[in-house]
Design a protein that fits this description.
Oligomer: heterodimer
Radius of gyration of chain A: 21 Å
Largest sheet of chain B: 2 strands, antiparallel
Strand content of chain B: under 5%
Structural class of chain A: mainly alpha
Radius of gyration of chain B: 23 Å
Structural class of chain B: mainly alpha
Order of helices and strands of chain A: HHHHHHHHHHHHHHHHHHHH
Largest sheet of chain A: none
Distance between the termini of chain A: 28 Å
Strand order of the largest sheet of chain B: 1-2
Shape of chain B: globular
Order of helices and strands of chain B: HHEEHHHHHHEHHHHHHHHHHHEH
Helix content of chain A: over 70%
Number of strands of chain B: 4
Number of helices of chain A: 20
Distance between the termini of chain B: 38 Å
Largest interface: A-B, 32 and 33 residues
C-alpha cells in the first residue's frame, strides 16, 4: 500500500469522485457538493504541496514510474491543477446555483477532468499521456455543453468536441510515427534513441510536428485556436474558468516535459528544431490573440482571446527551454501558477457580477459596477492588473520571469515583440477598468446585480490572496518552481 | 529610527491609504482631514532627511534587504543629493495638491484620497529605489493611481486622456524592462550570479552599439515620461482632463521621474550610449523648448497653455542634463524643483479660477484684476517665476542650464553644437515671456467685458494657505539658491566624475566586460579642451 503514496493525490481524486457520485444519489442532491469537492481538491493540493517540499521518494515501483513520474515537476502541477480545479468548483457552487443549473454530475466531472489533467502532467509515456488527455477532454466537452437547453452551449460543445477529436487523432498519429521511428513510447527512451541517432530524422520531425499540432490545439495556439472563443463563451462561466486554468496548465505541463525529455537532444532543441517552430507559433499566437481581443465586446470572449495571447507568452518561454532549460522551465511553471490564480480571479469576478437572469458578459454590463459595488470592482482591478502584468501582482512576476528567460536565451527580438503585444493587451484590460470605474450604465439598460454567494466570495478571496502573495513575496513560489524545474531538467 | 526612515516614509502613505479605505464614505470631512494629516506627518518626517550627511556623494539612510534571493532582487533604498530635493518636493506638494482640490472633488472623496496616498508611495519609492527591479516596480505602480485620478475625476474627455497616458507610459517602460533584462542577463553571464543592484550593474561595461540600444530603450521610457518632443502628445490631454490635484502632481513630480531616471539609471549604466545619443536628445530638448513655447502661445485654454509650457520647461532640463557640465546638471536638478513649484502653483491657480467660472477660456475673462487683486498678485508672481525673472527661482535654474550648455565643449557633452543649442534655448526664455505675459494681459487687465466676472470672489483663506508655501519657495530658491545647491553639489560632482571615468574606460571596448568590485573613482577629470573655457568658468565646468 505504501508504494502508492507518490500517487496519493491522484487516488484522492478518484475516490472523491466516486464518493461524490454516491453522495449525490443518497442525499438526493441536497448535499453541499461544491464544498465537498473543494475540500477533496484542496486536500490533494495539500498532499502534493507537502511532498513538493519533502525529499524525493526513493524506490518507487516501476509499474508507477514507467508511466507516471513522481518528480517535483509533476507535484508542482498537482498543486496548480488541484488549486485551479478547486477555484473552479467554488465558482461553480455559486454560478450553477444562481442560474438554476446545479446538478451533482458537474462536480464529478470536474474531479475526473482534474484527474486526467494530473495524469497528463505526470505522464512520461505517450500512452499515459493520451489516456490522461482523453480523460480530461471528455470531461471538459461535457462541462462545456452542460447547459443543455442553450443552443449556444451546445454549439460550443459540438465545435470543441469535433475539433478536439480531430486534434487528438493528429496527436495519436504523431505518437504512432514516433513509435515507428524509435520503437518506444516512453519519453526518456525516445530521447535516448533520437540522441543516439538511430531514428530516421524525417519520421521524427513529422511525428514531432504532429505532436506539437495536437498539443497546440489544447493550449489554443494560433492557428489551432478556432474553438477557443466559442467554447469559452458558450460554456458556463465556471467551466470557462476550469478550462482556462486546468486544461491550459496540464497541456503546457506535458508539452514541456515531452519536448525537454523526449526531444531534449542537441539536434532537436537546436536552432533548427522545435524551438524555432515554437518561436513562430509564439509570435503569431501572441500578436493574433492580443489584436483579436481588442475587437471584442464581450468580456468573456475577450478573456478567451487574452488566454490565447497568454498561451503565446508561454510558448515563448517553452521555446527558450531549448537554450536555457532551468531558467525557462521554472519561468513557465511560475507563469502558469500565476495565470491560474489571476484568471480564476477575473472570471470569478465576472461570475460575481451577474445574478439570475442577468448574467454579466459584455463590457456594457459592467458599466459603473466598480462604484456601485466596490468589492466586485476591487476583485476585477487586482485580477485585471495581474493579467496585464502589472506590479505588484503574480502576473507581473510571471511575465517578467518568462521574458527574462527569453532574453537569456538570446531571443531579444521576440521579447520586444512580446512586450509590445502585451502593451496592446493593456488596452483591452484597461477597457474593463474604464467600464467599471469611468462609465455609467446607459439609460434604461439592464443593470447587472452581483449575486450573493459565499462560495464565490471565498474563491475570490483565495485567488486574490495568491495573486498578491505571489506578487509581493514571490521568493517561495519561485523556489518551488525552480525545484520543480530541477526535477525535470536534473 | 533613522535606519528605517525611508521604509517609514514608504509605509506612512500606505497606512494612510488603508486607514482611509476603511473609513465610512459619508464622513467626507474626516476623510479629507485624515488623508491630509497623513501627508503632513509624512512631510514633517521627510524633513528628517536633512539629518543625513549631504556633504558627500554617498547614499544616506541606505537600507538593503534581500527580497527575491534566487534572482538577485533586493529591497535597496537610499537618498543622495540628486534625489533629496525631489523627495522633499514630493512630500511637500502631495498634501498641497490634495488640499487644493479640497472642494473641486466632491464625489468619491474616499477613493480620491486613497489614490493620492498610493501615488505618493509609488513616487517616493521610485526616488528611493537603488535596485533597478525595485525602481521598475514603483515606476509602474504609480501609473494606476494616476490613471484612475485622470479617468475617474477628470473632465469630459477623461477616458481618452487616461488611456492614452497609460498606454504611452506603458509602451516605454516595457521596452525599458527588456533592456533591464538584457543587462542583467549579461551581468549573469559575466559574474555567474544574478543581481539587480544599480551599483552592481554599473560594473558591466558593454560595447558601444549594445549600449546605444539599451540606452535608447531606457531613454524612450524616460522621454515619454518627461515628456520630450515628439512623445509629448499625451501631456496636454492628460493635464487638461485631470482634476487640479492630479495636474499638480503630474506636472510637479511625475514628470521629474523621467529626468531623474536619466540621471540615476540611464546615464550611469550606459555612458557610451548616453554620450552617443545624448546630444540628439538635447536637440529634441531644444526643439521641445521652442515648440512648447509656440504651442503655448496659441492656446485658448489656460490649462493647456500651462501644459505646453511644461513641455518647454522640461526641454530645458533635458538640455541641462545632457550638457554634462556641473552647471548644467545642477541647474537641471534645480530647475526640476523650480518647475515643480511654479507649474504646480500655476495649475492650482488655474484650478481656483475654474472652480469659480467653470471655464478656462481666455475669452471669458479680462479685467479680473479689479475684482480679484490677491489672486492677480499671486498669479503674476508665479508667472514671473515661470518666465525666469531674476529674483525668482526660474531665473537661477534657467541661467545655470544655459551657462552649462554654453560651456559644454569637452570630450563629453554637446560637442560642437554647444553654441547653436544655447542660442536656440535662450530664445525659449523670450517666448516664455511672450506667451505668459500675453495670458496675464488677457485674463487680468483691460476692461471687464463679462458681467459674471464682476461677481468673482477673491481667494479664500484655504486657498491662500495652499499657495503660501509655494510663493515662499519661489523667492527662497530665487534669492538664496545655495541652500539648495550645496546639498546637491557633492552628488552632482561624483556623478560627473564617475561618468567621465567610466566613459573613458569603456570608449574602446569591443567585448562585454565586468569592472572590478570597486571602481577607482579618485580619478582626475577630463582636461578642458579650450583654455578660454577655463578662463571663463573658473569654478563651474569640469574640474
Amino acid at each position: 500500500m505504501m508504494e502508492l503514496l507518490p500517487v496519493a493525490s491522484l487516488l484522492m481524486l478518484v475516490s472523491a469522485g466516486l464518493a461524490i457520485m454516491l453522495l449525490d444519489v443518497f442525499t438526493k442532491g441536497r448535499a453541499e457538493l461544491p464544498f465537498v469537492t473543494t475540500i477533496a481538491l484542496l486536500a490533494a493540493a495539500a498532499i502534493s504541496a507537502a511532498a513538493l517540499f519533502a525529499p524525493a521518494p526513493t524506490d518507487v515501483p516501476a509499474f508507477i514510474t514507467d508511466y507516471l513520474s513522481v518528480d517535483k515537476y509533476g507535484l508542482f502541477f498537482d498543486v496548480v491543477i488541484a488549486l485551479g480545479a478547486a477555484l473552479a468548483s467554488l465558482l461553480a457552487g455559486g454560478y450553477l446555483r444562481e442560474h438554476g443549473l446545479e446538478r451533482g454530475e458537474y462536480y464529478v466531472l470536474i474531479l475526473f477532468s482534474a484527474l486526467g489533467a494530473m495524469v497528463m502532467a505526470r505522464a512520461v509515456d505517450l500512452l499515459t499521456l493520451f489516456v490522461g488527455l482523453e480523460t480530461l477532454s471528455l470531461g471538459v466537452y461535457s462541462l462545456v455543453g452542460y447547459r443543455r437547453t442553450s443552443a449556444r452551449a451546445t454549439e460550443a460543445a459540438v465545435k470543441y468536441f469535433l475539433l478536439g477529436s480531430f486534434a487528438s487523432a493528429i496527436f495519436l498519429f504523431g505518437a504512432a510515427l514516433i513509435y515507428g521511428a524509435t520503437g518506444h513510447t516512453g519519453f526518456r527512451s525516445i530521447g535516448e534513441v533520437i540522441a543516439a541517432g538511430h531514428a530516421p530524422v524525417m519520421l521524427v520531425l513529422l511525428g514531432l510536428a504532429m505532436l506539437v499540432a495536437g498539443l497546440g490545439f489544447k493550449v489554443s495556439a494560433v492557428p489551432f485556436h478556432m474553438w477557443t472563443p466559442d467554447a469559452y463563451e458558450g460554456a458556463p462561466t465556471s467551466t470557462t474558468a476550469f478550462m482556462s486554468v486546468v486544461v491550459k496548465s496540464a497541456a503546457f505541463a506535458v508539452f514541456l516535459r515531452l519536448l525537454a525529455v523526449g526531444f531534449g537532444d542537441e539536434l532537436s532543441r537546436g536552432a533548427g528544431g522545435w524551438p524555432a517552430l515554437l518561436t513562430i507559433l509564439a509570435a503569431v499566437t501572441m500578436v493574433y490573440g492580443n489584436l483579436a481581443a481588442v475587437a471584442q465586446s464581450s468580456v468573456k470572449r475577450m478573456l478567451a482571446y487574452s488566454s490565447i495571447a497568454h498561451a503565446g507568452y508561454l510558448l515563448l518561454g517553452l521555446a527558450a527551454v531549448g537554450t536555457k532549460p532551468a531558467e525557462a522551465t521554472s519561468a513557465v511553471l511560475y507563469y502558469l501558477a500565476a495565470y491560474t490564480v489571476s484568471n480564476a480571479l477575473v472570471l470569478g469576478a465576472l461570475i460575481w457580477s451577474g445574478s439570475h437572469g442577468k448574467e454579466a458578459t459584455s463590457y456594457a454590463d459592467l458599466a459603473g459596477l466598480g462604484r456601485r459595488h466596490p468589492a466586485v470592482g476591487a476583485a476585477f482591478l487586482v485580477g485585471v492588473l495581474s493579467l496585464m502584468g502589472f506590479p505588484p501582482t503574480a502576473g507581473f512576476f510571471g511575465k517578467w520571469y518568462v521574458f527574462s528567460a527569453a532574453v537569456q536565451a538570446d531571443m531579444v527580438g521576440m521579447t520586444i515583440l512580446a512586450v509590445l503585444s502585451s502593451a496592446v493587451g493593456a488596452f483591452y484590460y484597461l477597457k474593463v477598468l474604464v467600464y467599471l470605474y469611468m462609465k455609467s450604465p446607459e439609460e434604461g439598460a439592464p443593470v447587472a446585480v452581483p449575486m450573493k454567494s459565499s462560495y464565490v466570495v471565498f474563491a475570490l478571496v483565495l485567488a486574490a490572496y495568491f495573486v498578491m502573495k505571489m506578487g509581493l513575496t514571490p521568493a517561495r513560489y519561485l523556489d518551488a518552481a525552480l525545484a520543480a524545474a530541477s526535477g525535470l531538467i536534473g | 529610527m533613522t535606519d528605517h526612515l525611508l521604509t517609514l516614509l514608504l509605509f506612512i502613505p500606505m497606512l494612510g491609504a488603508l486607514t482611509v479605505a476603511f473609513m465610512p464614505r459619508q464622513w467626507v470631512q474626516g476623510i479629507r482631514a485624515t488623508s491630509v494629516g497623513f501627508m503632513v506627518v509624512e512631510f514633517l518626517l521627510s524633513l528628517r532627511l536633512f539629518e543625513g550627511d549631504f556633504s558627500t556623494a554617498a547614499y544616506q539612510f541606505e537600507l538593503t534587504q534581500p527580497w527575491v534571493d534566487a534572482v538577485g532582487i533586493s529591497f535597496h533604498l537610499g537618498v543622495d543629493g540628486i534625489s533629496l530635493w525631489l523627495v522633499l518636493l514630493t512630500t511637500a506638494l502631495t498634501p498641497i495638491a490634495l488640499f487644493a482640490s479640497w472642494t473641486s472633488v466632491a464625489t468619491k472623496v474616499k477613493e480620491y484620497a486613497v489614490a493620492f496616498l498610493m501615488l505618493e508611495m509609488g513616487m517616493l519609492g521610485a526616488f528611493f529605489a537603488l535596485d533597478v527591479f525595485l525602481f521598475y516596480i514603483f515606476w509602474e505602480l504609480m501609473l494606476v493611481p494616476m490613471y484612475l485620478i485622470v479617468g475617474v475625476w477628470g473632465g469630459p474627455n477623461r477616458v481618452y486622456a487616461a488611456v492614452k497616458f497609460f498606454l504611452f507610459t506603458m509602451v516605454g517602460s516595457l521596452l525599458m524592462l527588456v533592456a533591464i533584462l538584457y543587462l542583467v542577463s549579461t551581468y549573469k553571464e559575466l559574474s555567474g550570479h544574478y543581481s539587480f543592484e544599480l551599483a552592481e550593474l554599473t560594473r558591466v561595461s558593454l560595447p558601444r552599439t549594445t549600449q546605444c540600444w539599451l540606452f535608447a530603450a531606457f531613454a524612450l521610457a524616460f522621454a515619454i515620461k518627461v515628456p520630450m518632443f515628439p512623445f509629448h502628445t499625451w501631456l496636454p490631454d492628460a493635464h487638461v482632463q485631470a482634476p487640479t490635484g492630479g495636474s499638480v502632481i503630474l506636472a510637479a513630480v511625475m514628470l521629474k521621474l523621467g529626468t531623474y531616471g536619466f540621471l540615476r539609471f540611464a546615464m550611469p549604466l550606459f555612458p557610451l550610449g548616453s554620450q552617443y545619443l545624448g546630444p540628439t536628445i538635447a536637440v529634441f530638448g531644444v526643439i521641445g523648448i521652442i515648440y512648447g513655447a509656440w504651442a503655448a502661445w496659441v492656446q485658448k485654454d489656460v490649462k493647456k497653455l500651462v501644459a505646453y509650457s511644461s513641455v518647454s520647461h522640461m526641454g530645458f532640463i533635458a538640455l541641462g542634463i545632457f550638457a554634462m557640465t556641473r552647471h548644467g546638471i545642477s541647474g537641471a536638478l534645480l530647475q526640476m524643483l523650480n518647475h515643480g513649484v511654479s507649474t504646480g502653483a500655476l495649475f492650482i491657480l488655474v484650478g481656483f479660477l475654474y472652480e469659480r467660472r467653470h471655464t478656462r477660456d481666455f475669452e471669458e475673462f479680462g479685467g479680473i484684476a479689479k475684482v480679484m487683486p490677491v489672486y492677480t498678485l499671486l498669479f503674476v508672481i508665479v508667472t514671473m517665476s515661470s518666465v525666469g525673472l531674476p529674483g525668482t527661482n526660474g531665473f537661477v535654474g534657467e541661467f545655470m542650464i544655459m551657462s552649462g550648455a554654453f560651456f559644454s565643449r569637452g570630450e563629453v557633452g554637446l560637442g560642437e553644437y554647444w553654441f547653436i543649442m544655447t542660442l536656440f534655448s535662450a530664445t525659449g526664455v523670450i517666448f516664455a515671456a511672450v506667451y505668459m505675459l500675453h495670458a496675464v494681459l488677457k485674463i487680468f487687465f483691460g476692461p471687464i467685458t463679462k458681467d459674471v466676472n464682476k461677481k468673482l470672489v477673491d481667494l479664500t483663506r484655504r486657498e491662500k494657505l495652499t499657495l503660501a508655501p509655494l510663493i515662499v519657495l519661489i523667492f527662497w530658491i530665487g534669492l538664496y539658491p545655495s541652500a539648495f545647491l550645496s546639498r546637491m553639489d557633492p552628488s552632482v560632482e561624483a556623478f560627473q566624475r564617475d561618468f567621465n571615468t567610466r566613459y573613458r574606460a569603456q570608449v574602446s571596448l569591443t567585448e562585454p566586460r565586468l569592472a572590478p568590485e570597486r571602481p577607482a573613482t579618485a580619478h582626475h577629470d577630463l582636461a578642458p579642451r579650450a583654455n578660454l573655457q577655463a578662463a571663463l568658468a573658473p569654478e563651474g565646468v569640469e574640474q
